[in-house]
């Protein structure tokens, strides 16, 4: 091609350009730049996310790798001041190597001021982080202090990068394996939502911001019934994946966001609309670890409950739990300390929160899963549900240990079954649970959606007054 | 393609093995049925593959992290 006659080509846009990223994140035509200091490393803007007013700031990865200096940190703090004054969510789009080395300690001081305002804003306005490139050092702890962290495929979070790790510990690891979507989505619990692309990460961020900021009202009359029991296996002992039930419960399965899907997958935590309003759903997943609670699951759920409570988001708790997972590993992993967080989170929560026991709820896990005693707004159970200290067979093995020991081994299973049936009558099942008031109402799976929405709508709409410490 | 080592999440008894060596399986298809915590828990792969090795049989007790089946 003749260079003299060719039409001049526009230079290809740099995908790291923060103005471009803000345009991509916010609804079309809503970007209003607040603060763009030349070379500060950060740009902030007002705009809308699925219609909801938000404030967004974005690293400028073209300037010193998006490092956080005094001017850039000032831009973030000013964006927070505006979001706090206007009561809107604030979203950070992160692609930054951390504090600016060239500026010295003054940059550390500035980064510390960002952490301080994030902490002051905690529980007051929703804070969402979208990590689209490397976020290291100070830029790692920024997202970690916020309510929800979304990571796109190229996102990386670490305190120190692969080179430092190699020189100090000799471990040979690349950035993706050290701090990419796989380790943070599955192992560390740092990241709540993992996406394939930057665009998808932005789409999730907009949906989340609008669910949290524009929560809407319950529409009790307009809530359609569905058969929530249809996704359950016939065999009551058979494990199943709880996701179809969660999808079926929400109004629209396409408009829900599951948090921490791969970390502690034995419990599901998700936000979406139910009966027209934003709610948080918590559900044991029997497909993983039999649905047992363990220490990461308790911690994940505790943080979710506290986040929803802080922002006035009502909760629906779907219970099918055999107990806490036994084991030396669990005890040493702090299942008592971390499990206590879940008891504390439910115990202090003031939002409307209803429980539905679908199949069974036993023992300590029964208490932890938003029981009546912890202050559930209302506890429902399906007609075949079991509420007990433990399964009947397990109970008679303890209660009738001596008697069973005397029985011939071949006959033991039959005697156990008989005793278990007797025990079931004595323990009283759901009727007894209703008498003592730990179950309020037995409801059919085909009438459950309306009953849950009505119970949530009747309860006073309150909001907890506390921050959302990243438990 | 890399091998997929399908391991148990938890201490359990092996109730049954649903596949044989050489069989092609889909993501989410039951490979092994475990019994633990009063539940029957199917073990399923996240991605499709061909069974190249089965390391357990019914009645075995497996530990957390123990490999049950290898897929290619």
UniProtKB/TrEMBL annotation, chain A:
InterPro entries noted in UniProt: AccD/PCCB, AcCoA_carboxyl_beta, ClpP/crotonase-like_dom_sf, COA_CT_C, COA_CT_N
Every CoA carboxyltransferase C-terminal domain range: 223-471
Domain CoA carboxyltransferase N-terminal: 1-224
Pfam family, one: Carboxyl_trans
Example of a GO cellular component annotation carried by this entry: acetyl-CoA carboxylase complex
Molecular-function GO term, any one: propionyl-CoA carboxylase activity
Name the record gives this protein: Acyl-CoA carboxylase subunit beta
TrEMBL record, chain B:
CDD domains according to UniProt: biotinyl_domain
Gene3D superfamilies: 2.40.50.100
All copies of domain Lipoyl-binding, residue ranges: 1-72
Superkingdom to which the source organism belongs: Bacteria
Position of the signal peptide: none
Listed InterPro entries: Biotin_Carboxyl_Carrier/Decarb, Biotin_lipoyl, Single_hybrid_motif
Transmembrane region(s): none
Keywords: Biotin
UniProt entry tagged with the keyword Heme: no
A matching Pfam family: Biotin_lipoyl
PANTHER family: OXALOACETATE DECARBOXYLASE ALPHA CHAIN
Protein name (database record): Lipoyl-binding domain-containing protein
Organism field: Dermacoccus profundi
